[in-house]
Each structure stands twice: as structure tokens, then as C-alpha cells.
Design brief:
Elements: E1 2-4, H1 34-48, H2 61-64, H3 88-101, H4 104-111, H5 116-130, H6 134-141, H7 144-153, H8 157-169, H9 176-184, H10 188-202, H11 206-213, H12 216-226, E2 236-238, H13 239-251, H14 260-268, H15 272-286, H16 290-297, H17 300-326, H18 331-341, H19 346-357, H20 361-368, H21 371-381
Parallel strand pairs: 1-2
Length: about 375
């Protein structure tokens, strides 16, 4: 970590978050990452002929794992890890039989114990075996919350989040907290992938839908989060910028009308490490928690947006644990968090959940869900926390 007092300032002329343009993105042909496409193509020839002897040899583990930084977001704090001795054709054959028998237990056992990368290989193998799209068959054979979970598991991470955002804006009313959950807990790179996936899945622009389904200052905040650009130098402690941001947040309340644009700019153009220093020092100077100030000076959806944004900056696993705790009866919320984070940081979320709830996430899932859906959620959760 380097320490500097006066790093170079960002160039003049940056677009202010209060007046954000809508950028239309050109659709791309696929959201499948390049490393997975290579693996799929590498095994395609052998998958097409199930009688070939070389298909008896399972895929090597290095073929089914993404490199360190990929769209699949697999990390050391995930609960779902690459399945050893993975063989996509064998799994596809079992899935085929399970779907014919409408055997939900087998479907759950296989799909919740494979990484997303491995599930993409299974769906490719299934198509080669049957000539059918696996997700289409899942829709016919399963129903309700279990169907939604299995379909979600078969999507890539960016597709899954794109579907969550679309569902939050469909029909009457808008699910603002789901919009905020997805947008606030994703990196700038991930949000770009989600935006591309959204256009591919629905032939709609995510920015335009956010504008049409939300209003006024809340829309401005959402677009700033979606298109966030980091202006500070990551990995460098810039004390002058910290003090400047503290003054900016304070000065926003100097007039009768709160300058919400200043808050949006600071909170969406800095990395989390810098913002944690800013918010921590600001709380010390003001003698009050940031969330308390937000509650007192903002209202409606904008207040909700700032609260969740600050919570995700200060401790994202704790925010997600609280989200689970307060929405445990809603299978869609539980599904969203578990599927999105089971390969990334669900272990951290489990720790925070136990601190907040006084019982483990595993026990809470056992209490609130039954049958095959419970079995699937528990598999994604991973284990009991004693």
C-alpha cells in the first residue's frame, strides 16, 4: 500500500452523476466467457458421440474451472466448489433420466453441487444428447419455486442478475430493493456484463427501463451506480481526497435543499476502501452514524437507495445477511442471494447472518422451507454453522 498526499487529480470535464446520459450498448452474440467457450468446444466432438470410449474419462478439473478473474466470479469464500471427477456427459444422462421421471431430488443433487461453469457444460452435453434445450425441458417438468431455482442455476451469473432486474421492474409496481441489491453489490465490470446480458435476454436497454420504471432523484442514483466510474486511484490512501470528500458530504446540508448530487458523486465514483475511510472519519467528526443522517435528510426511494448503498459499501455481507433475515419468507429473495453469492462470498454472509439472527442460515432455511426446495437451498448454503 502506497501513501500519498497529493496524487494527480482526475481530468476536468467529468460527467456529473446528476446529469447522466443513457448509453446504448451494441448487442453481442454471446455472454459465454471466452475460457468457457474454449472448454465447451474442446469437448463438443466427444459429447456428440456417447459411445466413444474417451468419454468415459471425466474432464480434468482445470478444464472446468475459470481463471482467477472471469465472469463466473468464483472465489475462496464460496460454498459451491468445482465437483471432483466431473463428467458433463454422465451428468447430462442422469439429468435426462431425472427429467423423464420428474425426479426433482436427482436434479437438485446434481445441479446444486456443480459450479456454474460445470453446469454450462452439462447443458451443452444435454443438448447434444437430446437435441433439446435443457431449460425448456426444465420448465415442462418442474413448477413453482423449485422450477425458478433450477432455471436460475442454469443461467450464467450475468444472465441471472439480468433476469432479477427485469423481474423487479415487470408488472405493476417496482421492487426497488431488489434493484438496489443487485446494483449495489456488483462491481463495475460485473455491471457491464449484466447490462450486455440484459440486452441479449430481453432486447431492451437496462438504462432505459430504469428510467421508465423509477422516478426523479432515485433514477439518477440508480444510473450513477450502474455506470459508476472510479475517479480515485485504487490501492492508494489519498488523505487530501478523503478530507475533500468529507467536506463535500458535509457542505451538502449547508442550504435548505440538500445537495443530493454531491452525495451521489462521492458514493458512486470512489472505491469501497476509500469510501470506508471517508464514512468512518465523517461519522467521527459529525458524532452520528451516516445512516442516521440519511434517515433525517432524505425520503422515499432515495433514502432507501442511499441506505443500501452505504450498507453495501461498509459491509456487503452484513447487508445481504440482513436482507435474508428480513425476507426469509420470500423464496425469490433467498434464491437471488444464494445463487448469486454461492460461488463468491456466501461463507461471509453466513457468518454475518448468525451474528444478526442468533442462529445459522442453514437452520433458518430448514425452518422456513420444505421438500426439494429446502434440499436445494441447504445444498447451496453448504453447511451448519455451530
Amino acid at each position: 500500500m502506497r501513501y500519498i498526499r497529493n496524487p494527480p487529480r482526475a481530468p476536468q470535464g467529468h460527467t456529473q452523476p446528476g446529469v447522466l446520459p443513457v448509453h446504448k450498448r451494441s448487442p453481442q452474440t454471446t455472454v459465454t466467457p471466452h475460457w468457457l467457450s474454449h472448454t465447451l468446444n474442446q469437448h463438443q466432438a466427444s459429447i456428440q458421440d456417447p459411445h466413444r470410449k474417451d468419454m468415459e474419462t471425466p474432464l480434468k478439473m482445470e478444464d472446468s474451472q475459470p481463471p482467477a478473474k472471469t465472469e463466473m466470479w468464483w472465489g475462496t469464500l464460496g460454498t459451491v466448489r468445482p465437483f471432483p471427477d466431473f463428467n458433463p456427459l454422465k451428468d447430462a444422462q442422469e439429468v435426462k433420466t431425472a427429467l423423464e421421471k420428474k425426479d426433482g431430488n436427482t436434479m437438485v443433487r446434481i445441479l446444486t453441487n456443480r459450479t456454474n461453469a460445470q453446469r454450462q457444460l452439462i447443458t451443452r452435453a444435454y443438448h447434444s444428447l437430446t437435441g433439446k434445450d435443457m431449460s425448456f425441458t426444465l420448465k415442462k417438468c418442474l413448477s413453482g419455486a423449485l422450477q425458478e431455482l433450477m432455471l436460475g442455476l442454469m443461467m450464467t451469473p450475468s444472465q441471472f442478475d439480468a433476469h432479477r432486474l427485469r423481474q423487479a421492474m415487470e408488472g405493476l409496481g417496482t421492487d426497488e430493493e431488489t434493484l438496489l441489491e443487485v446494483l449495489c453489490t456488483r462491481s463495475a465490470e460485473q455491471l457491464k456484463d449484466i447490462t450486455v446480458a440484459y440486452k441479449q435476454e430481453f432486447d431492451r436497454y437496462l438504462e432505459n427501463d430504469l428510467i421508465s420504471e423509477t422516478s426523479k432523484d432515485f433514477t439518477t442514483l440508480l444510473l450513477a451506480i450502474l455506470t459508476k466510474q472510479r475517479e480515485n486511484q485504487q490501492g492508494v490512501i489519498d488523505y487530501e481526497l478523503i478530507d475533500g470528500d468529507i467536506n463535500t458530504l458535509t457542505d451538502a446540508f449547508s442550504n435548505k435543499r440538500v445537495d443530493m448530487a454531491s452525495w451521489i458523486k462521492v458514493l458512486t465514483t470512489r472505491d469501497a476502501e476509500h469510501l470506508n475511510r471517508v464514512l468512518s472519519k465523517w461519522e467521527q467528526v459529525q458524532g452520528v452514524l451516516v445512516e442516521k443522517v440519511i434517515q433525517n435528510h432524505f425520503s422515499g426511494d432515495l433514502k432507501l437507495g442511499f441506505c443500501i448503498l452505504v450498507q453495501s459499501i461498509q459491509n456487503s455481507p452484513r447487508y445481504l445477511a440482513h436482507r435474508l433475515l428480513t425476507s426469509m419468507k420470500k423464496s425469490s429473495v433467498v434464491r437471488g442471494v444464494l445463487v448469486s453469492h454461492c460461488e463468491e462470498d456466501l461463507l461471509s454472509i453466513r457468518v454475518e447472518f448468525r451474528r444478526l439472527a442468533g442462529l445459522s442460515l442453514y437452520s433458518a432455511l430448514q425452518k422456513d422451507f420444505k421438500g426439494e426446495l429446502q434440499q436445494a437451498f441447504l445444498a447451496l448454503c453448504g453447511a451448519e454453522d455451530l
